[in-house]
Amino acid sequence: MTVSPIPHTKRALTIREFCAAYSLSRSTTYKLISAGKLHTFTIGRRRLVAVEEAEKLIKLAAA
């Protein structure tokens, strides 16, 4: 299975944007974060996912 990256102009996505881009629910996303499979960072009150981290997760899931 070939994984083609989703073109992003942003370098980081909010949780909502990540869920929409990768068709995941918020609860699944937070489970991935809690399990240490998806790394996030916080700026102010916003939790963000680096696009590189999102692509890494998808590649691991497809392997």
Automatic annotation (TrEMBL):
**Pfam families the UniProt entry points to:** HTH_17
- InterPro entries (alphabetical): HTH_17
Instruction: Give residue ranges for domain Helix-turn-helix.
Output: 13-53
Which named protein is this? Answer: Helix-turn-helix domain-containing protein
Organism, per UniProt? freshwater sediment metagenome
